[in-house]
Amino acid sequence: MLGFEDRVAVAVSGGKDSLSLLHVLAKLERSFPKASLVAITVDEGIRGYRDEALKIAASNCRELGIEHEVVSFKELFGLTLDEVVKRLHRKRSESLTSCACCGVLRRKALNLAARKVGANKIATGHTLDDETQTILLNIFHGDVLRLAREKPVTDEVHPKLVQKIKPFCEIPEKETALYAYVRKIKFQSRPCPFASEALRNDVRAMLDKVEENRAGVKYTIFRSIERIRPALEELDKREGLTECSECGEPTSEKVCRTCQILKQMTRSA
Ligand SMILES: [Zn+2]
């Protein structure tokens, strides 16, 4: 995942997973003089929640001596997540959830920020728990080809898409939490007020229950997908990415998902 001369942008939300990752990478990076780290925090604009996380992220970066870049939905897209959610409610949208919108906008924001700071990799704090939940969710949604695309190290499919890596993909969440406690890392423990992925919560509870009785099940699920991924990739011969006709960013459609969502938002305003 990591090279000697990488400039790695670490996506830091302010939670325990991303901050543990920042501390681990900061420790590793000291032995590699040609590599560098920069932390990126996306300010979605969630009043009373993100402000606290931003302070925590900033103080960890200061402590570690790591450059910290903050990008906001408001400055990039003209809307805060609070405003997006308000509009979603007004439209009574059922197909688009706040988490889905936020995910699309955040991925784009991260990619733009990573390019701005000259990073060649984006590291995220996804744990084994996140990965296995996502695997089952993709199956529950019938979205099996996504299993091929969402992998621990993404392919370099377009020069404008910064490669993403998930160094904690085989580490259980309990261990990243333990690391944060042992190292006395300050992190935000409150969940996002908009967290509304009901199905993910069910899947999490189910996996935790099974893991409790059969330790290692999460890891087995993760490894199973790793093993069948080459076959899935054969199935998923993707058309090449083009550039969005609105914003010029890479997309598989004519207009990228971010621009589609933003258009929908302004139309409903
Ligand atoms: Zn676009």
Description:
The chain is of the alpha/beta class. The protein has helices at 16-29, 50-64, 73-77, 81-91, 98-116, 128-140, 146-149, 173-182, 198-213, 217-235, 257-268, and strands at 7-11, 36-43, 67-72, 121-123, 163-165, 242-243, 250-251. The strands form two sheets. A five-stranded parallel sheet has the order 3-2-1-4-5, with helices on both faces. A hairpin with a 6-residue loop joins strand 6 and strand 7. Helix 1 (16-29) runs parallel beside helix 2 (50-64), helix 1 packs across helix 8 (173-182) and helix 6 (128-140) crosses helix 9. The radius of gyration is 19 Å and the shape is globular. The chain binds zinc ion (ZN). Zinc ion binds at residues 244, 246-247, 249, 255-256, 258-259.
